[in-house]
UniProtKB/TrEMBL annotation:
UniProt keyword Methyltransferase, yes or no: yes
GO CC term (a single one): mitochondrion
Compartments reported by the entry: Mitochondrion
Protein name: Arginine-hydroxylase NDUFAF5, mitochondrial
Molecular-function annotations in GO: oxidoreductase activity; S-adenosylmethionine-dependent methyltransferase activity
One GO term (biological process): methylation
Gene name for this UniProt entry: LOC111141723
């Protein structure tokens, strides 16, 4: 078991069964959103979604899936903290790409009345973590949410949206299913995630094979998130970034854990296999460039957190341009007078 933030992460929960979406009488797809069998003209088909489903199912079938949950549980708890920061009770909430329920387990029924959890992997839903909130687990693709407009008071998503092919449309769907004055709180991997692994593989492959292929999936830049949320219709936006560093015995242990998390690369342009010599060289490069004093090697996970609200008339709005009654120059004079008054006391 690996160490995260000075604590050993090991939690054992009882499993719960998943519920197919077709049994809930929900709409098939959102209005104006294409069905899973079609593609959006603007979408870049970067990821093999069927392979991602198989990877997540394989990870959830392992004898001890909780062994690899440390990162997703940590980020799930940080999402839950942001929910608690909002002084409101949410009667109906949705988790997009819930995995084994890494957010809901940290919430209570006083904050959320009922939780809908959606994931592409049926095995993850069958091995859902125990929680006190009443939940409905739905097998559905996160890219095609099967809910009606204005359904949820809260939508959350943790470490799932970086695998969707059309992130703008996914955000539009989340906005669509939110009620007015509802809030979306999400987290996804950022561009500097696993930069140590990426650099080591590229250097080793270039030296041994004369060139390199992408082995770590592409990530969204933090500078784009605010624009994407705004374009999807969200307002009162908050975007911040954080880093979590986990130490591993070596590169191969890191790659084993990524597979156990269901976070292996599924980009269409990925290289199927790496030569054994290249892998050994990459592990040596990793250790030489990034080794800690205790002999372990670090892996950096950059996390983008985002909060966006769906518009409602009751929300505070900025004043119209030109409606100010005091100039910045006058404000400066007031500050100077206040400073002089403090000095004279």
């Amino acid at each position: 078991m690996l160490r995260l933030g000075g604590l050993w992460v090991l939690r054992l929960r009882s499993p719960a069964a998943g519920v197919p979406a077709k049994n809930l009488g929900l709409r098939e797809v959102a209005s104006g959103v294409s069905s899973p069998g079609s593609t959006s003209p603007r979408a870049l088909n970067i990821f093999d979604r069927d392979l991602k489903r198989k990877q997540k199912n394989w990870a959830a079938r392992q004898p001890e899936p909780m062994k690899f949950d440390y990162l997703k549980e940590e980020v799930g708890s940080r999402i839950a903290d942001r929910v608690y920061d909002i002084a409101r009770n949410f009667s109906l909430a949705l988790d997009v790409g819930c995995g084994r329920g890494y957010i809901a387990q940290h919430l209570n029924k006083e904050t959320v009345g009922k939780f809908f959890q959606v994931d592409i992997a049926e095995n993850a839903l069958k091995n859902i973590l125990e929680m006190e909130i009443p939940t409905v687990n739905i097998l559905a693709d996160e890219e095609f949410l099967p809910f009606r407009e204005n359904t949820f008071d809260l939508v959350v998503s943790s470490l799932s949206l970086h695998w969707v092919n059309d992130l703008p449309r996914a955000l539009e769907q989340i906005h669509y299913v939110l009620k007015p004055d509802g809030v979306f709180i999400g987290a996804m991997f950022g561009g500097d995630t696993l930069y140590e692994l990426r650099c080591s593989l590229q250097l080793a492959e270039t030296e041994r094979e004369g060139g390199f292929s992408p082995h770590v999936s592409p990530f969204t830049a933090v500078s784009d998130l605010g624009h994407l949320l705004g374009r999807a219709g969200f307002n009162t936006l908050t975007v911040d970034t954080d880093e979590i560093q986990v130490n591993y015995p070596g590169m191969f242990e890191l790659m084993e854990d990524l597979q156990g998390m269901g976070e292996s690369n599924c980009a269409w342009n990925r290289k199927g296999l790496l030569h054994r010599d290249t892998m050994l060289a990459a592990a040596a490069v990793y250790r030489e460039m990034y080794k800690n004093e205790d002999g372990s090697v670090p892996a950096t996970y950059q996390i983008y957190y985002m909060i966006g609200w769906k518009y409602h008339n009751s929300q505070a709005r900025p004043a119209e341009r030109g409606s100010a009654t005091v100039s910045f120059g006058e404000l400066g004079k007031i500050n100077n007078l206040m400073s002089q008054g403090k000095k004279s006391q």
